[in-house]
Amino acid sequence: MSDIEAIRAQLLGDIEAAADAGAVEALRVAALGKAGSITGLLKTLGGMSPEERQVQGPAIHGLRESVTAALAARKDVLDAAALDVRLAAEAIDMTLPADAAPRGSVHPVSQVMDELAEIFADMGFAVATGPEIEDDWRNFTALNIPETHPARAMHDTFYFPDANAEGQKMLLRTHTSPVQIRTMMSQEPPIRIIAPGRVYRSDSDATHTPMFHQVEGLVIDRGIHMGHLKWTLETFLKAYFERDDIVLRLRPSYFPFTEPSAEVDVGYKQEKGRRIVGGNGDDEGHAWMELLGSGMVNRRVIANCGLDPDEWQGFAFGVGVDRLAMLKYGMDDLRAFFDGDLRWLSHYGFGALSVPTLSGGISA
Ligand code: DAH
User: Fold this and answer.
1) Packing angle, helices 37-44 and 21-32, rounded to 10
2) Separation of alpha carbons 308 and 314, rounded Å
3) I need a labelling partner for 138 at 20 to 30 A (CA). Which of 102, 123, 132, 178 fits?
4) Ligand 1: which of 175, 215, 232, 301 to mutate, most ligand atoms within 8 Å of CB?
5) 8 A C-beta contact, residue 79 and residue 21
6) What is the CATH number of domain 108-348?
């Protein structure tokens, strides 16, 4: 047997016997590393005569290839065995009863979204959704925010580098309002929906995170007016804050997609460093706090969706879900919502099995 064959037999035997990944690696270094045996053989090629090299070259390279392949094969076998051991150790017994030791809890944002769905379902609203990756037309143009509108700058939009197949700029939706467009374009009125979900703006400090949550409301029907809007918001906020003394103040405002537009304030009182919603903001010890944006859906928006604004009217509103959660449950730093800190969650989270219902208590 030539030297090369002897080396091959030795190395392949050692590799086959390697017990773990560390041993395989040690053999690789010993054979193919800088000072390895095969590397040494390869270096001798330079000093050989052409005839000799013609014989030894292919033999040494062949040795290197077979050793490389054997190392890889052994590593695969050992990796698969290690994975089997881990899978066996991490097996979960699915037959354990769910109430054995409930861990984990519902995030306040999810809880509030569930509460909203429950409250609005009682008023005949369905839950609608839309994609978080939205096109420029639905996020802005159809909502009466044309290319040059200053509101676009205010939204601190995250744009994608490439347009879609229709040449539309793509973006992360900056509000849930595009779900208004999607719903009006895909559903016959009358429409009553809320649309909770994630929205994105390039903005962050103690009270702003680049991703946050909003809920949109939309009603489209015949003969809808501001009275319906005010009643709906009042009923919603009383149910949400679980008290009857919620007082609203509608302040004239401007949103491109509503006309007229109103900012909705609620009365509150400062108690032990916390804002407690309730009472008339003009009363002694009370103040007003801006809570949501709303208005009658702009005729142009209705027409942009292919509906006749002489026949169909409606109202819309938008509110920050995280803010609603903070106000009701007394958290003061928005960033904690998205830290994924289990201690925060076990303090503020909700039991996975306690579902909010109007009859059983909305936050019980
Ligand atoms: N889309 C607005 C925002 O993100 C919120 C809003 C205001 C929504 C008024 C509405 C509305 O539907 O009528 O700031």
Assistant:
1) 20
2) 12
3) 123
4) 175
5) yes
6) 3.30.930.10
- The letter for the amino acid at 30 is A
Helix (H) or strand (E) holding 268: strand 258-271
**Nearest-CA residue for atom 12 of ligand 1:** 317
d(CA 66, CA 64) in angstroms, rounded, equals: 6
* CA–CA separation, 253 and 261 (whole Å): 5
Contact 196, 130 (CB under 8 A): no
Ligand 1 pocket, residues with Cβ under 6 angstroms: 175, 177, 216, 255, 258, 293-295, 316-318
Going from N- to C-terminal start, the domains of the chain cover 2-89, 108-348
Least confident of 224-233, 262-271, 327-336: 327-336
Report how far ligand 1's centroid is from the alpha carbon of 175 (Å). 7
* Ligand 1 center from residue 316 Cα (angstroms): 8
pTM of this prediction exceeds 0.85: no
185, 305 Cβ separation under 8 angstroms:
yes
d(CA 190, CA 195): 16
The 3 state secondary structure assigned to 176-222 is CCHHHHHHHHHCCCCEEEEEEEEEECCCCECCECCEEEEEEEEEEEC
Per-residue pLDDT, 351: 82
